[in-house]
Write a structure and sequence with these properties.
The protein has about 140 residues and is mainly β. It is about 5% helix and about 40% strand. The strands form two sheets. It has an eight-stranded mixed beta sheet with strand order 6-7-8-9-4-3-10-11. The protein is globular and about 35 Å long.
Length: about 140
């Protein structure tokens, strides 16, 4: 986390407002993911912050749906289609799509993962350490 990263109280939600959440603990800074699953989900590189799952409170969640694939799950809004969350079995964290966090986030990009899988239509650039696989 950056020195001025948000503490408890960060909020966010989907495009239509049907899903709203609050983070009641610290957020990890942003990691960009270039894997093919994230690119297909988001239409491009995915940007995720993360928090401990126990610190994620759903304020409004009626249209929230989960797509499960193996040991991974993605949370999205069934009304507007926004991708909001990512989680993996056995982890105590939930990743939040950084674009769904209300401004000001005070987050920064700290890493890029699966850069070896990046799409052939763009160049990997920008901040953060680069890794060919997950952290």
């Amino acid at each position: 986390m950056s020195d001025d990263a948000p503490a408890a109280g960060a909020t966010g939600g989907c495009l239509c407002g049907g899903v709203r959440y609050e983070v009641r603990g610290p957020l990890r800074d942003v990691v960009l993911c270039h894997c093919s699953r994230c690119r297909r989900t988001h239409g491009h590189v995915a940007a995720y912050a993360a928090c401990r799952t126990e610190h994620l409170a759903l304020v409004r969640a009626e249209p929230l749906r989960w797509f499960d694939e193996g040991t991974r799950s993605r949370g999205f809004c069934a009304t507007c289609g926004a991708s909001l969350f990512w989680r993996a079995a056995g982890r105590d964290t939930t990743s939040l799509a950084a674009g769904t966090i209300d401004a000001p986030t005070r987050l920064r990009t700290i890493a890029q993962i699966f850069v070896a899988d990046a799409g052939d239509y763009y160049e990997v650039c920008g901040p953060g350490e680069r890794h060919d696989a997950a952290l």
